[in-house]
Amino acid sequence: MLSRSRRKQVTFALVPEIFIGETADLKLEVANAPDGMRGRLDWPEGVSGPGAFPFEAGEGGAARAKVSCRAVRRGVWSFDRLWLSWSSRLKLFEFVPRLSVGASVRVVPNIRLVQSGAITTTVASTLYGVKENRVIGEGSEFHQLRDFVQGMDVKTIDWKRSARRRALVAKELRAERNHHVVVALDTGFLMREEIMGLPKIDHAVTAALATAWAAIIGGDLVSCYAYDIQPRIFVAPQAGRAAFARLRSLMADLTYVGRETNHMLALSELNARTPKRSLIIIFTDFVDTTSAELLIENIGILARRHVLIFVTLRDPETEDLAEAAPQTLNGVATLVAASQSIAERRLVHERLARLGVTVVNARPDQVTARLISAYLDIKAREVI
Protein backbone atom coordinates (compact mmCIF):
# COMPACT_ATOMS: atom_id res chain seq x y z
CA MET A 1 0.00 0.00 0.00
CA LEU A 2 1.25 3.46 -0.83
CA SER A 3 -0.38 4.91 2.28
CA ARG A 4 -1.18 3.18 5.53
CA SER A 5 -3.96 4.35 7.86
CA ARG A 6 -4.29 2.90 11.34
CA ARG A 7 -6.94 3.63 13.91
CA LYS A 8 -6.22 6.93 15.64
CA GLN A 9 -6.76 7.60 19.32
CA VAL A 10 -6.65 11.10 20.78
CA THR A 11 -5.70 12.15 24.31
CA PHE A 12 -6.99 15.53 25.47
CA ALA A 13 -5.48 17.51 28.39
CA LEU A 14 -6.85 20.87 29.60
CA VAL A 15 -7.41 22.49 32.99
CA PRO A 16 -11.00 21.95 34.22
CA GLU A 17 -11.63 25.70 34.68
CA ILE A 18 -10.45 28.83 32.87
CA PHE A 19 -10.99 32.39 33.98
CA ILE A 20 -12.83 34.34 31.32
CA GLY A 21 -10.52 36.53 29.29
CA GLU A 22 -7.49 34.38 30.04
CA THR A 23 -5.69 31.77 27.94
CA ALA A 24 -4.76 28.18 28.62
CA ASP A 25 -2.73 25.53 26.83
CA LEU A 26 -4.65 22.63 25.32
CA LYS A 27 -2.49 19.54 24.89
CA LEU A 28 -3.38 16.89 22.31
CA GLU A 29 -1.72 13.55 21.63
CA VAL A 30 -2.66 11.23 18.77
CA ALA A 31 -1.42 7.65 18.62
CA ASN A 32 -0.31 5.97 15.38
CA ALA A 33 0.21 9.34 13.74
CA PRO A 34 1.91 9.85 10.33
CA ASP A 35 4.47 12.58 9.67
CA GLY A 36 3.32 16.07 8.76
CA MET A 37 -0.09 15.72 10.37
CA ARG A 38 -2.17 18.81 11.07
CA GLY A 39 -5.27 19.28 13.20
CA ARG A 40 -8.32 21.49 13.48
CA LEU A 41 -10.79 21.64 16.32
CA ASP A 42 -14.46 22.52 16.21
CA TRP A 43 -14.16 25.27 18.81
CA PRO A 44 -17.22 25.80 21.03
CA GLU A 45 -18.75 29.26 21.32
CA GLY A 46 -17.13 30.01 24.66
CA VAL A 47 -13.55 29.14 23.69
CA SER A 48 -11.56 30.53 20.77
CA GLY A 49 -8.42 29.17 19.20
CA PRO A 50 -6.45 28.90 15.94
CA GLY A 51 -8.05 27.51 12.83
CA ALA A 52 -5.38 24.87 12.21
CA PHE A 53 -2.26 23.77 14.04
CA PRO A 54 0.63 21.33 13.37
CA PHE A 55 1.52 18.18 15.27
CA GLU A 56 5.07 17.34 16.24
CA ALA A 57 6.39 13.80 16.18
CA GLY A 58 6.73 12.17 19.59
CA GLU A 59 7.81 8.82 20.99
CA GLY A 60 6.25 5.54 19.97
CA GLY A 61 4.66 6.86 16.79
CA ALA A 62 2.57 9.43 18.64
CA ALA A 63 2.15 13.07 17.63
CA ARG A 64 1.68 15.94 20.06
CA ALA A 65 0.36 19.48 19.77
CA LYS A 66 0.09 22.35 22.23
CA VAL A 67 -2.65 24.82 21.30
CA SER A 68 -3.28 28.13 23.05
CA CYS A 69 -7.00 28.84 23.56
CA ARG A 70 -8.84 31.83 25.08
CA ALA A 71 -12.00 31.78 27.17
CA VAL A 72 -14.53 34.29 25.78
CA ARG A 73 -17.91 33.18 27.22
CA ARG A 74 -18.93 31.87 30.64
CA GLY A 75 -20.41 28.38 30.84
CA VAL A 76 -19.53 24.73 30.31
CA TRP A 77 -18.25 24.08 26.79
CA SER A 78 -17.66 20.74 25.09
CA PHE A 79 -15.00 19.79 22.58
CA ASP A 80 -16.70 17.25 20.35
CA ARG A 81 -14.62 16.74 17.21
CA LEU A 82 -11.00 16.91 16.14
CA TRP A 83 -10.24 16.92 12.41
CA LEU A 84 -6.89 15.54 11.27
CA SER A 85 -5.29 15.85 7.87
CA TRP A 86 -2.19 14.41 6.21
CA SER A 87 -1.11 13.57 2.69
CA SER A 88 -0.46 10.15 1.22
CA ARG A 89 3.12 9.07 0.52
CA LEU A 90 2.95 10.13 -3.12
CA LYS A 91 1.03 13.33 -2.27
CA LEU A 92 -1.88 12.20 -4.44
CA PHE A 93 -4.49 11.98 -1.70
CA GLU A 94 -5.25 13.75 1.54
CA PHE A 95 -6.71 11.89 4.49
CA VAL A 96 -9.13 13.87 6.67
CA PRO A 97 -10.43 11.64 9.48
CA ARG A 98 -12.68 12.93 12.25
CA LEU A 99 -12.06 11.89 15.85
CA SER A 100 -14.37 12.26 18.82
CA VAL A 101 -12.81 14.16 21.71
CA GLY A 102 -15.51 14.02 24.38
CA ALA A 103 -13.94 16.60 26.72
CA SER A 104 -15.26 19.80 28.29
CA VAL A 105 -14.07 22.89 30.14
CA ARG A 106 -15.82 25.34 32.42
CA VAL A 107 -15.29 29.06 31.86
CA VAL A 108 -15.83 30.98 35.11
CA PRO A 109 -15.72 34.67 36.18
CA ASN A 110 -12.24 36.07 36.55
CA ILE A 111 -11.18 36.42 40.20
CA ARG A 112 -7.44 36.63 39.56
CA LEU A 113 -7.17 39.88 41.56
CA VAL A 114 -8.93 38.26 44.51
CA GLN A 115 -6.62 35.24 44.44
CA SER A 116 -3.50 37.38 44.14
CA GLY A 117 -4.23 39.11 47.47
CA ALA A 118 -3.83 42.61 46.01
CA ILE A 119 -7.37 43.64 46.97
CA THR A 120 -7.07 42.19 50.46
CA THR A 121 -3.83 44.06 51.08
CA THR A 122 -5.22 47.35 49.79
CA VAL A 123 -8.48 47.23 51.72
CA ALA A 124 -6.99 45.93 54.95
CA SER A 125 -4.22 48.54 55.00
CA THR A 126 -6.68 51.34 54.17
CA LEU A 127 -9.46 50.47 56.63
CA TYR A 128 -7.55 48.74 59.43
CA GLY A 129 -4.11 50.31 59.20
CA VAL A 130 -3.12 53.93 59.64
CA LYS A 131 -6.55 55.22 58.66
CA GLU A 132 -8.22 53.29 61.48
CA ASN A 133 -6.54 55.58 64.02
CA ARG A 134 -7.77 58.63 62.15
CA VAL A 135 -11.44 57.60 61.98
CA ILE A 136 -11.75 56.74 65.67
CA GLY A 137 -13.80 59.49 67.22
CA GLU A 138 -15.11 60.65 63.86
CA GLY A 139 -17.58 57.88 63.12
CA SER A 140 -21.09 57.07 64.21
CA GLU A 141 -20.65 53.64 65.84
CA PHE A 142 -20.09 53.37 69.61
CA HIS A 143 -16.66 52.02 70.47
CA GLN A 144 -16.01 52.47 74.20
CA LEU A 145 -16.26 54.78 77.22
CA ARG A 146 -13.25 56.54 78.69
CA ASP A 147 -12.53 59.14 81.33
CA PHE A 148 -12.82 62.68 80.05
CA VAL A 149 -9.50 64.51 80.14
CA GLN A 150 -8.53 68.04 79.29
CA GLY A 151 -8.23 68.58 75.54
CA MET A 152 -11.06 66.23 74.54
CA ASP A 153 -14.14 67.54 72.73
CA VAL A 154 -16.87 68.52 75.20
CA LYS A 155 -19.47 67.14 72.76
CA THR A 156 -18.23 63.59 73.46
CA ILE A 157 -19.29 63.73 77.15
CA ASP A 158 -22.01 61.23 78.08
CA TRP A 159 -23.88 63.29 80.66
CA LYS A 160 -26.15 60.50 81.93
CA ARG A 161 -23.29 58.11 82.66
CA SER A 162 -21.22 60.98 84.06
CA ALA A 163 -24.04 61.81 86.50
CA ARG A 164 -24.25 58.20 87.68
CA ARG A 165 -20.48 57.97 88.16
CA ARG A 166 -20.13 61.53 89.45
CA ALA A 167 -17.19 61.92 87.08
CA LEU A 168 -16.99 63.07 83.50
CA VAL A 169 -17.13 60.16 81.03
CA ALA A 170 -16.68 60.53 77.25
CA LYS A 171 -17.99 58.30 74.47
CA GLU A 172 -15.48 57.17 71.90
CA LEU A 173 -16.89 56.52 68.44
CA ARG A 174 -15.43 54.85 65.37
CA ALA A 175 -16.28 54.37 61.74
CA GLU A 176 -19.39 52.25 61.32
CA ARG A 177 -19.11 48.89 59.58
CA ASN A 178 -21.60 46.20 58.60
CA HIS A 179 -23.05 48.36 55.85
CA HIS A 180 -25.15 46.78 53.12
CA VAL A 181 -23.49 46.77 49.69
CA VAL A 182 -25.72 45.78 46.77
CA VAL A 183 -24.15 44.81 43.44
CA ALA A 184 -26.81 45.34 40.74
CA LEU A 185 -26.06 43.88 37.31
CA ASP A 186 -27.97 44.76 34.18
CA THR A 187 -27.90 41.62 31.98
CA GLY A 188 -29.91 43.04 29.07
CA PHE A 189 -28.93 42.89 25.42
CA LEU A 190 -26.83 46.09 25.54
CA MET A 191 -24.48 44.35 27.95
CA ARG A 192 -23.78 41.67 25.34
CA GLU A 193 -21.80 44.13 23.22
CA GLU A 194 -18.14 43.15 23.04
CA ILE A 195 -15.40 45.48 24.26
CA MET A 196 -11.75 44.43 24.15
CA GLY A 197 -12.73 40.90 23.14
CA LEU A 198 -15.31 40.20 25.87
CA PRO A 199 -18.99 41.10 26.43
CA LYS A 200 -19.62 44.06 28.72
CA ILE A 201 -21.46 41.83 31.18
CA ASP A 202 -18.30 39.77 31.74
CA HIS A 203 -16.19 42.87 32.40
CA ALA A 204 -18.92 43.96 34.82
CA VAL A 205 -18.98 40.58 36.59
CA THR A 206 -15.20 40.70 37.06
CA ALA A 207 -15.36 44.19 38.58
CA ALA A 208 -18.42 43.28 40.66
CA LEU A 209 -16.77 40.26 42.23
CA ALA A 210 -13.59 42.21 43.00
CA THR A 211 -15.62 44.96 44.69
CA ALA A 212 -17.73 42.41 46.57
CA TRP A 213 -14.53 40.87 47.93
CA ALA A 214 -13.27 44.32 48.96
CA ALA A 215 -16.57 44.97 50.77
CA ILE A 216 -16.39 41.63 52.58
CA ILE A 217 -12.81 42.36 53.68
CA GLY A 218 -14.04 45.79 54.79
CA GLY A 219 -16.58 44.19 57.13
CA ASP A 220 -19.68 44.91 55.07
CA LEU A 221 -22.58 42.68 54.01
CA VAL A 222 -22.83 42.06 50.27
CA SER A 223 -25.95 41.45 48.20
CA CYS A 224 -26.42 40.62 44.51
CA TYR A 225 -29.21 41.73 42.19
CA ALA A 226 -29.47 40.83 38.48
CA TYR A 227 -32.16 42.00 36.08
CA ASP A 228 -33.08 42.50 32.43
CA ILE A 229 -36.69 42.80 31.31
CA GLN A 230 -37.61 41.81 34.87
CA PRO A 231 -35.75 41.02 38.12
CA ARG A 232 -33.93 37.69 37.92
CA ILE A 233 -31.78 37.20 41.01
CA PHE A 234 -31.79 38.77 44.44
CA VAL A 235 -29.55 37.55 47.24
CA ALA A 236 -30.01 39.03 50.71
CA PRO A 237 -26.97 40.78 52.22
CA GLN A 238 -24.49 38.33 53.71
CA ALA A 239 -21.06 38.56 55.29
CA GLY A 240 -17.96 36.40 55.12
CA ARG A 241 -16.12 34.33 52.57
CA ALA A 242 -19.06 31.94 52.16
CA ALA A 243 -21.09 34.87 50.83
CA PHE A 244 -18.42 35.56 48.20
CA ALA A 245 -18.41 31.93 47.10
CA ARG A 246 -22.17 32.06 46.64
CA LEU A 247 -21.97 35.30 44.67
CA ARG A 248 -19.31 33.84 42.42
CA SER A 249 -21.46 30.79 41.72
CA LEU A 250 -24.54 32.89 40.93
CA MET A 251 -22.65 35.26 38.64
CA ALA A 252 -21.05 32.34 36.82
CA ASP A 253 -24.55 31.18 35.86
CA LEU A 254 -25.78 34.54 34.53
CA THR A 255 -27.01 33.99 30.98
CA TYR A 256 -26.44 36.11 27.90
CA VAL A 257 -29.91 37.37 27.02
CA GLY A 258 -31.27 39.29 24.04
CA ARG A 259 -34.02 41.14 25.90
CA GLU A 260 -34.20 44.88 26.49
CA THR A 261 -33.78 46.05 30.06
CA ASN A 262 -36.76 47.44 31.95
CA HIS A 263 -35.01 49.88 34.31
CA MET A 264 -38.25 51.22 35.76
CA LEU A 265 -39.46 47.81 36.98
CA ALA A 266 -36.03 46.56 38.04
CA LEU A 267 -34.93 49.62 40.02
CA SER A 268 -38.35 50.00 41.65
CA GLU A 269 -38.13 46.39 42.80
CA LEU A 270 -34.59 46.97 44.08
CA ASN A 271 -35.76 50.02 46.05
CA ALA A 272 -38.52 47.96 47.64
CA ARG A 273 -36.14 45.13 48.57
CA THR A 274 -33.56 47.38 50.27
CA PRO A 275 -35.32 49.34 53.03
CA LYS A 276 -32.07 50.04 54.88
CA ARG A 277 -29.76 52.75 53.57
CA SER A 278 -27.20 50.90 51.44
CA LEU A 279 -24.42 51.37 48.95
CA ILE A 280 -25.82 50.27 45.57
CA ILE A 281 -23.41 49.69 42.69
CA ILE A 282 -25.24 49.60 39.34
CA PHE A 283 -23.55 48.12 36.27
CA THR A 284 -25.50 49.04 33.15
CA ASP A 285 -25.34 50.67 29.73
CA PHE A 286 -27.39 52.99 27.55
CA VAL A 287 -27.38 54.21 23.95
CA ASP A 288 -28.29 57.89 24.13
CA THR A 289 -29.93 60.52 26.34
CA THR A 290 -33.43 59.57 25.16
CA SER A 291 -33.09 55.91 26.13
CA ALA A 292 -31.51 56.94 29.43
CA GLU A 293 -34.41 59.14 30.62
CA LEU A 294 -36.22 56.40 32.57
CA LEU A 295 -32.89 55.16 33.90
CA ILE A 296 -31.98 58.62 35.26
CA GLU A 297 -35.44 59.12 36.75
CA ASN A 298 -35.40 55.86 38.68
CA ILE A 299 -31.81 56.29 39.80
CA GLY A 300 -32.83 59.69 41.16
CA ILE A 301 -35.49 57.96 43.27
CA LEU A 302 -32.94 55.46 44.60
CA ALA A 303 -30.45 58.24 45.36
CA ARG A 304 -32.88 59.84 47.85
CA ARG A 305 -32.40 56.95 50.26
CA HIS A 306 -29.23 55.16 49.20
CA VAL A 307 -25.66 55.90 48.16
CA LEU A 308 -25.18 55.02 44.49
CA ILE A 309 -22.23 54.22 42.26
CA PHE A 310 -23.11 54.16 38.58
CA VAL A 311 -20.68 52.08 36.50
CA THR A 312 -20.36 52.15 32.71
CA LEU A 313 -17.61 50.97 30.39
CA ARG A 314 -15.79 53.19 27.92
CA ASP A 315 -15.24 51.70 24.48
CA PRO A 316 -11.63 52.31 23.33
CA GLU A 317 -12.60 51.70 19.70
CA THR A 318 -15.23 54.46 19.77
CA GLU A 319 -12.73 56.85 21.33
CA ASP A 320 -10.17 56.01 18.66
CA LEU A 321 -12.75 56.72 15.94
CA ALA A 322 -13.51 60.10 17.53
CA GLU A 323 -9.83 61.04 17.61
CA ALA A 324 -8.77 59.77 14.15
CA ALA A 325 -8.51 62.28 11.32
CA PRO A 326 -11.04 61.35 8.59
CA GLN A 327 -9.80 60.72 5.05
CA THR A 328 -13.13 60.19 3.30
CA LEU A 329 -16.75 61.27 3.61
CA ASN A 330 -17.55 57.97 5.31
CA GLY A 331 -14.76 58.74 7.74
CA VAL A 332 -16.32 62.12 8.49
CA ALA A 333 -19.70 60.50 9.16
CA THR A 334 -18.04 57.95 11.46
CA LEU A 335 -16.19 60.72 13.33
CA VAL A 336 -19.40 62.71 13.86
CA ALA A 337 -21.34 59.64 15.06
CA ALA A 338 -18.59 58.60 17.48
CA SER A 339 -18.20 62.13 18.86
CA GLN A 340 -21.96 62.49 19.32
CA SER A 341 -22.15 59.16 21.16
CA ILE A 342 -19.36 60.17 23.56
CA ALA A 343 -20.94 63.60 24.14
CA GLU A 344 -24.36 62.11 24.95
CA ARG A 345 -22.86 59.64 27.38
CA ARG A 346 -20.98 62.46 29.08
CA LEU A 347 -24.23 64.42 29.37
CA VAL A 348 -25.96 61.52 31.11
CA HIS A 349 -23.03 61.11 33.52
CA GLU A 350 -23.16 64.81 34.38
CA ARG A 351 -26.88 64.63 35.12
CA LEU A 352 -26.32 61.67 37.42
CA ALA A 353 -23.48 63.45 39.19
CA ARG A 354 -25.80 66.38 39.91
CA LEU A 355 -28.15 63.91 41.61
CA GLY A 356 -25.34 62.95 44.00
CA VAL A 357 -24.46 59.69 42.24
CA THR A 358 -20.82 58.65 42.04
CA VAL A 359 -20.07 57.90 38.38
CA VAL A 360 -17.35 55.44 37.36
CA ASN A 361 -16.83 55.53 33.61
CA ALA A 362 -13.65 53.67 32.73
CA ARG A 363 -12.04 51.28 30.28
CA PRO A 364 -12.57 47.58 31.07
CA ASP A 365 -8.95 47.18 32.20
CA GLN A 366 -9.26 50.15 34.59
CA VAL A 367 -12.79 49.86 35.94
CA THR A 368 -11.97 47.51 38.84
CA ALA A 369 -9.33 49.79 40.34
CA ARG A 370 -11.51 52.88 39.89
CA LEU A 371 -14.50 51.16 41.47
CA ILE A 372 -12.63 49.89 44.54
CA SER A 373 -11.15 53.36 45.02
CA ALA A 374 -14.65 54.85 44.92
CA TYR A 375 -15.85 52.30 47.49
CA LEU A 376 -12.97 53.06 49.85
CA ASP A 377 -13.56 56.79 49.48
CA ILE A 378 -17.24 56.39 50.39
CA LYS A 379 -16.26 54.29 53.41
CA ALA A 380 -13.75 56.90 54.53
CA ARG A 381 -16.28 59.77 54.21
CA GLU A 382 -18.94 57.80 56.11
CA VAL A 383 -21.75 58.74 53.75
CA ILE A 384 -23.53 55.37 53.91
TrEMBL record:
Domain of life of the organism encoding this protein: Bacteria
SUPFAM superfamilies in UniProt: vWA-like (SSF53300)
InterPro entries referenced in this protein's UniProt entry, alphabetically: DUF58 (IPR002881), vWFA_dom_sf (IPR036465)
Bilayer-spanning residue ranges: none
Location of the DUF58 domain: 145-332
Name of this chain's protein: DUF58 domain-containing protein
Organism of provenance: Rhodobium orientis
